[in-house]
């Protein structure tokens, strides 16, 4: 049987070690992939004098599926976010961030199961129209929402609800104040919701969502929202299950999909073999589900769940003392 090729971007800081953990686990589960490695971030800057080389873009385009570690974008003028650049280049319009409680994880809540569906290419987060006056007294940025963009992401959320057997979609907005951009998003989302009478629809202003997520997280199932709100809400949701180390992310377009750890590159613990690889492992599970390899996805998910619940070989953020390598080996043993 021919092996399917996927592009692997190890990333910066702890990236290479946690990506390697995910690949080892997929190999032991018999996923039968061929890995094409590509550079991006600081590693690419050192090797190729650019953060996102054309060769990397070509590999992503060729294989259509990419697993990516965390990347560092240098702070300062002239450097645009690599993640934003990838989303724009490949029109990865849907950002999918599921959070699920794991028995044994260090968190305040149990039974959390929320998916944030975030529009990934428009709104304030896209970086459009950013200017700052020469005397540093005035700055501007532009937020653009299109009917096509709002319809596409809302359709994605409702189709996901049907596919996953979910009961409710919460449309998150700030249309009471941002009447143009958020108003258009809400109007279009309402139109889409009417096509899905089998799915309960709820509308909520973004600040109320943040409060309710902390007080009554069980009220949420699928959240759909604009770019900046989705970025903030998805991190808040990660906090409900123990932090960004337990939160994967998928960036999905028409043809190309990139699955990633959503946390940073953590250069302060690079090379110490203590990072929790779960974010990339869970991203690889998202990738397997996207490739309709549900049996392999479930096999790995069960092994991760068992390992964390046992608590014998888990990393320090999960309450243990295991190294990244030991944690990975424990998951492999539980496959």
UniProtKB/TrEMBL annotation:
GO terms for molecular function: isocitrate dehydrogenase (NAD+) activity. SUPFAM superfamilies: Isocitrate/Isopropylmalate dehydrogenase-like. This is Isocitrate dehydrogenase. Gene3D superfamilies: Isopropylmalate Dehydrogenase (3.40.718.10). InterPro entries: IsoCit/isopropylmalate_DH_CS, IsoPropMal-DH-like_dom. Belongs to the isocitrate and isopropylmalate dehydrogenases family. Its EC number is 1.1.1.41. Residues 5-331 form the Isopropylmalate dehydrogenase-like domain. It comes from Oceanisphaera pacifica. Keywords: Oxidoreductase.
């Amino acid at each position: 049987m021919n092996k399917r090729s996927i592009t692997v971007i190890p990333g910066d800081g702890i990236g290479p070690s946690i990506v390697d953990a995910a690949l080892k686990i997929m190999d032991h589960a018999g996923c039968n992939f061929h890995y094409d490695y590509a550079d991006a971030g600081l590693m690419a800057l050192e090797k190729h004098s650019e953060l996102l080389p054309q060769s990397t873009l070509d590999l992503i385009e060729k294989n259509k599926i990419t697993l990516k570690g965390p990347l560092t974008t240098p702070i300062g003028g002239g450097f645009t976010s690599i993640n934003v650049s990838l989303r724009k280049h490949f029109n990865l319009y849907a950002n999918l961030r599921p959070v699920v409680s794991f028995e044994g994880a260090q968190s305040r809540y149990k039974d959390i199961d929320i998916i944030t569906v975030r529009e990934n290419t428009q709104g304030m987060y896209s970086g459009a129209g950013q200017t700052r006056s020469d005397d540093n007294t005035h700055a501007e940025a532009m937020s653009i929402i299109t009917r096509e963009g709002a319809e596409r992401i809302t359709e994605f959320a409702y189709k996901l609800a049907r596919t996953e057997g979910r009961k409710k979609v919460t449309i998150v907005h700030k249309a009471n104040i941002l009447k143009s951009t958020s108003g258009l998003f809400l109007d279009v989302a309402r139109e889409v919701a009417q096509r899905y009478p089998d799915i309960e629809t709820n509308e909520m202003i973004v600040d109320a969502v943040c409060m309710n997520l902390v007080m009554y997280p069980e009220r949420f199932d699928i959240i759909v929202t604009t770019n900046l709100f989705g970025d903030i809400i998805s991190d808040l949701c990660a906090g409900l299950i123990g932090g960004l180390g337990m939160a994967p992310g998928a960036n999905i377009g028409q043809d190309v999909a990139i699955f990633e750890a959503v946390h940073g590159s953590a250069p302060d613990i690079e090379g110490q073999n203590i990072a929790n690889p779960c974010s990339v492992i869970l991203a690889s599970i998202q990738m397997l589900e996207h490739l309709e390899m549900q049996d392999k996805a479930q096999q790995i998910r069960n092994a991760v769940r068992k390992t964390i619940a046992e608590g014998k070989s888990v990393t320090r953020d999960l309450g243990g003392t295991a190294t990244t390598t030991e944690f990975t080996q424990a998951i492999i043993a539980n496959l």
